[in-house]
Amino acid sequence: MVGGTVYEAFQRTLARHEGREFLSIIPETAQHYGIEARSYTYVQAADEIATLANRYAAAGLRAGQRVGLMLENRPAMFFHWLALNSLGVSAVPLNPDWREAELEYVVGHSEMVAAIVPPTRVEELRRAAERIGHRLSVGTEEERSAVVGATDDRRPAPDANTECALLYTSGTTGRPKGCVLTNEYFLWSGTWYAGIGGLCQLQEGVERLITPLPMTHMNAMACSTMVMLLTGGCIIPLDRFHPRTWWDSVRESRATVLHYLGVMPAMLLGAAPAPGDRQHRIRFGFGAGVSPRLHAAFEERFGFPLIEAWAMTETGCAAAIIASHEPRKIGTACFGRPSSKVDCRVVTAEGDDAAPGAHGELWVRSVGDHPRRGFFSEYLKDPEATAQAWQGGYFHTGDIVFVDTDGDFHFVDRKKNVIRRSGENISAVEVEGVLLQHPRIASVGVAAVPDEVRGDEVMACVVPRGAVEDPPALARELVELCLQRLAYFKAPGYIAFCDELPLTPTEKIQRARLGELARERVGIGSTLDLRSMKKRTQ
Fold it and tell me: Contacts by 487-490 with C-beta closer than 8 Å and gap 24+?
């Protein structure tokens, strides 16, 4: 495993590939951010990083402090992060969708001493800090001004165990937790990715990786950035996912690898086939959550494999599992099998190891004397939650999976997304996957709503494609689709047509807010009650 810090790893790559491109900003992304469309070689990036590091050091920043960065996927995000890392200062990526109450919490919880934000957010950050009585120096990337570190306390030089970033979970079920991530965490992630091989084989100094995922997310920060940084590749960060211009961006950027989340393949398949569907250089896509029923169709149409992987912010890639070798068992939500460095258990609700094919929660740890090696260090200021997550010596993921007789892992659902109706466990994701096959559906979220007789009932909040002239008819079509492909009890008992779903910045459904929406809508006249269609057929 590569040792030291992320910045030191960058310096080692710089020595090998100084003239190669490190970062490329395409015109569409540049226009969105109001910056220049251009590329930065490793040596040009090094100059930007050095300038920032000198200013941070002159301002008094020291190892062990934290600085918030609301820089989205701009070049500045990469440069500021590496400059801070060179000093042993931790970066706290700030989600631009956060507003004052959320910012108050993160500013106070992280105890950041400074923040770099867009000019339009400066006063908001200052007010947030003032309301909680926290001293915070706020600057902008455009000003390129120094910020005040507020201490001259000198600490040991940063190393692999130094905090590199404080990444907040998406907060789908409450206030986000701050995951303390060390240099080891990031270097392990990049090293793991670089060594996957198989269908994910990477060439030193050649690859160009395009990602629309935000740098507030471990996928972009720890996976795509780190693997390119370690192998001399080029990162192509987009401001976000633009379905209509996606393939233009892929072709224009000369990308060879792309990163995706499950919603992206579905949206791309929703567009009409075009002669240019296979006119690109992509060799593989790296991601998670593609609908099993769309997986093969996507690969057939666009001509490259979507490699399904599993990981979490807390695990990083120390416990990542990926289906990078054949047979990948497309269409079964298979994400491969663990490497020899990962120790896994699949545990039933009763605490027993699940038999092949039986569903259970995935527990993971690193093999050897250091089971937490490469994982997050802790939930900041929450030792009880940290201890609870590691009960029994394994990290409890909260993901329900099963292992087949070949030893391959298959994703079922998040533990908290399981709906329990009349004693039957129902996966919200499974029902969503069926509903998404209907051509009139753009997106859908399935949640439990209370039922006096059955405990829970299944409700689907549906975002249709275009106007719905006959909602009851379309709702019946959706239930019939589920009844054809799923056990009757899994079909929606209620359907509500919505303009949008509550989503996280990475386009995942915010399950807590979806549940609230479902409970609110179940009593409204426009919500359709289809429970009478759910009948046992035998």
Answer: 487/424, 488/534, 488/535, 488/536, 488/537, 489/421, 489/422, 489/424, 489/426, 489/458, 489/534, 490/424, 490/426, 490/430, 490/431, 490/458
- CB-based contacts of 467, cutoff 8 Å, min separation 6: none
The full DSSP string for 243-309 is GGGHHHHHHHHT-SEEEEETHHHHHHHTSPP-GGGG-S---EEEEE---HHHHHHHHHHHSS-EEEE
Q: Is 472 exposed, middle or buried (0-12, 13-18, 19+ CB in 10 A)?
A: exposed
Give the DSSP per-residue string, 267-280.
HHHTSPP-GGGG-S
Q: Which two tokens stand for residue 442?
A: 């753009």
pLDDT score for 523: 81
Pick the CATH number of 422-533 from 3.30.200.20, 3.30.360.10, 3.30.300.30, 3.30.1330.10: 3.30.300.30
How many angstroms separate the first and last alpha carbons of the chain? 57
> d(Cα 97, Cα 155) in Å, to the nearest integer?
34
Q: Under 8 Å CB-to-CB from 273, ≥6 apart: which residues?
A: 301
Please name which of 263, 212, 214 lies closest in space to residue 96, comparing C-alpha atoms. 214
Tell me, yes or no, if the pTM score tops 0.85: no
> How far from chain centre, in Å, is Cα 269?
21
> What does the pLDDT look like over 164-177, one tens digit per residue?
999 998 544 456 78
Residue 92 host element (H or E):
strand 90-93
Q: Residue 145: helix, strand or coil by DSSP?
A: coil
- DSSP lists the bridge partners of residue 131 as none
Per-domain boundaries in the chain: 338-418, 422-533
**Could you say which residues of the chain have pLDDT below 70?**
1-2, 142-155, 170-175, 423, 537-538
pLDDT tens sequence across 91-111: 999 988 777 777 899 999 999
Quickly name the fold that domain 338-418 has. Luciferase; domain 3 (2.30.38)
SS3 472: helix
